[in-house]
Design a protein that fits this description.
The chain has about 140 residues and is mostly helical. The chain has one domain: Arp2/3 complex 21 kDa subunit ARPC3 (Orthogonal Bundle), CATH 1.10.1760. The protein is built from 7 helices and 2 strands. The protein has a two-stranded antiparallel ribbon. β1 and β2 form a beta hairpin. The protein is elongated.
């Protein structure tokens, strides 16, 4: 890969990381839940598109940067491991109620996964039709 192709891929990677961050920050729909703060967002969809268009190495990296940056800047990084259950137990609920409340937050993950399966192929097809494909970006 030539220097100009590598530079183009790095610029696109930075752009994708920023778009992923914005896709979560701006385009999110909060869902009511007993435990946690679940929401529907477009970050996962944009990450999958980045992997498809930039290749696994660059795509996974920009996904981790965009999604991770959002989590760190919005306080979600500290609540990623069983925190909802622990918080529910601290306020006096039983373990069974805490676990059920935690599982109700999985609705957002399910909706995000289904949206990803439906929207990614549509967006990818549109991007390829307008001339933005993996061969044009260059592969690593």
């Amino acid at each position: 890969m030539g220097r100009s192709e590598q530079l183009k891929k790095l610029v696109l990677a930075g752009l994708f990381a920023a778009i992923i961050f914005i896709g979560i920050s701006v385009l999110r729909i909060p869902l009511p839940a007993i435990v946690g703060r679940p929401f529907i967002h477009f970050g996962n969809i944009l990450t999958v598109l980045a992997v498809m268009l930039l290749g696994f190495g660059y795509g996974a990296t920009v996904g981790a940067v965009g999604l991770g940056l959002f989590d760190i800047l919005n306080g979600y990084a500290a609540t990623s491991w069983c925190t909802g259950v622990i918080e529910a137990l601290m306020v006096g609920t039983t373990l069974k109620v805490a676990m059920i409340g935690s599982f109700t937050s999985l609705l957002a993950a399910t909706i995000n996964a289904v949206a990803c399966v439906i929207i990614v192929p549509l967006l990818y097809r549109i991007l390829v039709q307008v001339g933005f494909n993996r061969q044009r970006v260059g592969t690593v």
